Backbone:
């Protein structure tokens, strides 16, 4: 069984990565969406189990001590964690997983799954658009928005560590790009090295199609 | 201007790479097909200027001394060369180029265009199919076919040096995979490093879409 790929999607807040990840999984039902856990309170539009698993501090800490998280961290005072089990099971079953995660978490995930990780950095089309999106949500105070914009500038410095860069100026275009990236990655030779070795010894074989 | 990519396509003889490359350019008229020069006589189905530029030994040598080839080599006693000008011009103009080339040539091209090269190794679906294709052409003696099969086995050992591996069991599938690979490569961060640096300093900018 060829293991699945782990599409690691990061972006500055407001670049639209949650919407993108959910739309990608709707478009490609063969993909598994990894939903993170957080102690942050849900925003008005967010659904438990879809956007996040919203946990109390006590429940979160319990899972930390159980080793249930692949990685976890505190950002802006709240805890965020990536559940390990679902990703492990999907990858082993040959299914691709979509993981919406911040930059700090993406680095930990890459270390845990160096062969399976495909890291994509999403940006909004412009700073102006990013600011408009953050203000348009009407969810955050001006202080929070200014902090998010400053964070976004700092986060951009990390974009060069990612494998791919996708500009989310149009949802359909961005979805198509994520789909294309995932399909192409299935044909990359480093991921197929075992198959290629077998092929050299046993003759050519049919591989899973992209 | 973002430079174009150079899709370097290699395969054992009989894997169908000439057909694939020509069909890819028909499907994507924005692509430039690089046609190689050779001193080998044309096969019955081959057209001058489409499959190869068929040259005399004298004309070939003249171009060698003029430095017209990016790389050239002798294979099975005949000379093969890749004209430099057309590739240079297309890449500089931001157009992607498809280059059908043997393994030896692919290595030289990678050294000449390390940033632009995207190397794809094509295999037929099985050894049996490869032999059937070589015999089906009715163009070669049994000795030549046996030599080509032995070469194919040796060439497979080089597949692991390529970036991608595409199995040509169905022309439409294989074309789709080549198309997807080229589109994904346009979003790879190492190719966009200059743009990313600019983006960090000047704010987010719109990039060419894939």
Residues:
């Amino acid at each position: 069984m060829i293991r699945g790929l782990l599409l690691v999607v990061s972006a500055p807040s407001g670049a639209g990565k949650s919407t993108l990840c959910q739309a990608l999984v709707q478009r490609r039902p063969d993909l598994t969406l990894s939903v993170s856990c957080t102690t942050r309170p849900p925003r008005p539009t967010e659904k438990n189990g879809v956007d996040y698993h919203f946990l109390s501090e006590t429940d979160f800490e319990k899972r930390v001590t159980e080793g249930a998280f692949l990685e976890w961290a505190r950002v802006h005072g709240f805890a965020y964690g990536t559940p390990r089990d679902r990703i492990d099971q999907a990858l082993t079953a040959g299914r691709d997983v979509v993981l919406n995660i911040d930059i700090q978490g993406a680095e930990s995930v890459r270390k845990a799954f160096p062969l399976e990780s495909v890291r994509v950095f999403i940006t909004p089309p412009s700073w102006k658009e990013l600011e408009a999106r953050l203000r348009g949500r009407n969810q955050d105070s001006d202080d929070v928005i200014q902090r998010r914009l400053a964070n976004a500038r700092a986060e951009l410095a990390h974009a060069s560590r990612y494998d791919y860069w996708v500009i989310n100026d149009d949802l359909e275009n961005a979805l198509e790009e994520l789909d294309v990236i995932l399909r192409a990655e299935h044909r990359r030779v480093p991921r197929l090295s075992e198959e290629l070795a077998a092929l050299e010894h046993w003759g050519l074989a049919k591989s899973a199609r992209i």
